[in-house]
Structures are given as C-alpha cells and as structure tokens.
Amino acid sequence: MAEELIVNSNLDKKQQYEILIPQLKALVQGEKDLVANLANTSAALRQTFNWFWVGFYIVKNDELVLGPFQGTIACTRIKYGKGVCGTAWASQKSMFIPNVSEFPGHIACSSLSVAEIVIPIFNSQDEVVAVLDVDSDKFDVLDETDVLYLEKICGLIY
Ligand code: SME
C-alpha cells in the first residue's frame, strides 16, 4: 500500500480525481473493514480537495450514525428521511445542494457550511449501508463533476 498520497493542486478537478481514484482503489482493495476504508477515504478526499467537511454516516437500524470524517465536530445521529443525508438514504439517490439554505430540512451541523453533496453507498443487495457527505464553506466549489466522481469513489468502498 502506498504510504503517501500524491496530490497535485495545480491540476483541474477532473485530473485530480483521475489521480486520486487509482490510489484509493489500492488503499481499499484487499481491506474488508468498512470503518478502515471509510477513514482512509475521508482523509484522502480531504487531503486532495481541502473541503470544509468530508465524512461518512453509517446506517444503524433506523438512523445514520456519524462515522469516520475530517473536519469540525458534527451531528452524531440523523433519522431516515431527515436532512440531506437522510433524504439521500431514503431516496437512494445522490444529492447535490448548491445552496443549503434553499433545502428545506437541511441539518446545519455548522453554520459555515453553504453547499453539500451526499452520495449513498450500497452493498451487494443494493441496500444503502452508509452515505458520503461533503460540505463546502464556499459557493461554486462543488458541482456535478464532483457528484460523478464521488459516485465512482463510493462504488469502490463496499
Ligand atoms: N447537513 C447534513 C448533516 C450532516 S453535516 O453536514 C456533517 C444534512 O442535512 O443531512
């Protein structure tokens, strides 16, 4: 396993993902522990993009429970169907919210977060087992390119 993540912040976003994805594949390949893989994935995403917050919520019974993340402290439990994360879980669809103040029911773990992407992670029975949550403190940083590549990354995890 690589000991150091290669990051080149001079590249455009697509190129950064293209460099990151094979490194993430190598990191999670052969490791079956979900928490270990979520921890390294959140760290690698933060190192690459320096987002305000990036991490995971794990499905436990009828709620999402905070998993590995990078950033400031966050809400620990989110109910099915609540907030952006609970909505992504219930709808089984990726959510891109360019302005969180326009999303009814958004759960503000930090008032600094202004835009958000949430991607569901599925097991082999197509059940949602976790969600990836990315928060930005700047408008116009997150976009559909992130959604596309983050879906690919979430596909590597389980
Ligand atoms: N904003 C999320 C809650 C999680 S934090 O952003 C880390 C939501 O509405 O589900």
Overview of this protein structure:
The chain has one domain (13-157): GAF domain (Beta-Lactamase). The chain is 35% helix and 25% strand. The protein is built from four helices and six strands; from the N terminus they run H-H-E-E-E-H-E-E-E-H. A hairpin with a 5-residue loop joins strand 5 (115-122) and strand 6 (128-136). It is globular, with a radius of gyration of 15 Å. The mean pLDDT is 96. Methionine sulfoxide (SME) binds at residues 53, 74-75, 78, 83-85, 106-107, 109, 113, 116, 133, 135.
CATH architecture: 2-Layer Sandwich
Q: What is the helix tally? A: 4
State the name of the first-level CATH class.
Alpha Beta
Mean pLDDT: 96
Give the arrangement of secondary structure elements.
Layout: H1 13-28, H2 34-49, E1 53-60, E2 63-70, E3 77-79, H3 83-91, E4 95-97, E5 115-122, E6 128-136, H4 144-157
Antiparallel strand pairs: 1-2, 1-6, 2-3, 4-5, 5-6
The protein binds methionine sulfoxide.
Methionine sulfoxide is lined by residues 53, 74-75, 78, 83-85, 106-107, 109, 113, 116, 133, 135.
Outline of this structure?
The chain is α+β, with helices and mostly antiparallel strands and 158 residues long.
